[in-house]
Amino acid sequence: MDTKTRAKQAVDPHPLHHKVSTPDLAYLGKRLRLERNRQGISLREVARRVNVSPSMISQIENGLVMPSVSTLWSLATIFKMSIDELFSHSKRVRTQTRVDNRNPPGAEGPVQRGDSRERLRLAGGVLWERLTARPEDEVEFLYVVYAVGAESCPEDSLFRHGGKEYAYVISGRLGLQIGFEKYELKAGDSISFSAHQPHRLWAIGNEPAVAIWVILNRRNDDRIGNRGSG
Question: How far apart are CA 106 and CA 187, in angstroms?
């Protein structure tokens, strides 16, 4: 298998049987910009807290660049948003109190069909798909793919956020660093850890790493700017 074919399958491991909506970069950027303005935080201040350039934040907000895993986690933490709120069809307004019980596209009551999951393709070949039929307040339930060579952040820039994470590896091999400890997870392995600890994820080997991920109580984090080990 040549490199281009492997890379394509890494990002979408089931190209013929897994038709899902394309992530809306414009929606993601607009959602982040509106929330930043609503909270009265300057673009430069957000960039300082996330530890990226103001131009990078501007490009993300204008739908020109998809953020990395660590950058998106940091932005969501700063704005106290759930990842569910950033999927293109998750149009729930955070300030509303009435629960909207209408089913989003692809959902049948509590059932989320596998051929219509909402997805986010993040920078560097990381794919997230939401496994719940609608946004949840206290849990994020995701199907995650790390393409060949993909990583959540550079080796020297571990990140952290609120909550606790649980993962089960379906296929491939996934590297996980928590603090100074490194682990290699293969198909059938599972792990749980506090996301308050600095951590990093990456694909190992020449095939994608595919896993089911659960994050509980992610917004239970009073810190602003959660990057690094400090």
Answer: 28
pLDDT, tens digit, 9 for 90 and up, residues 37-80: 999 999 999 999 988 999 999 999 998 888 888 888 889 888 88
Domains, the chain, in order of start with CATH, read: 10-95+114-216 (2.60.120.10)
Task: Return left, alpha or beta for 96; rule: phi > 0 is left, psi -120 to 50 is alpha, else beta.
Answer: beta
- The residues pairing with 222 across neighbouring beta strands, listed in sequence order, are none
**Model confidence, pTM:** 0.71
Categorise residue 227: left if φ over 0, alpha if ψ from -120 to 50, beta otherwise. Answer: beta
For residue 29, with 0-12 CB atoms within 10 Å meaning exposed, 13-18 middle and 19 or more buried, which class applies? Answer: buried
Answer yes or no: are the C-beta atoms of 147 and 208 closer than 8 Å. yes
DSSP state of 62: T
Residue by residue, DSSP assigns 107-174 as EETTEE-TTS--EEEETTTEEEEE-SSS--SSEEEEEEEE-TT-BSS-TT--B--SSEEEEEEEESEE
Q: Each residue of 156-200: pLDDT tens digit?
A: 888 888 889 999 999 999 999 999 999 999 999 999 999 999 999
SS3 state of residue 38: helix
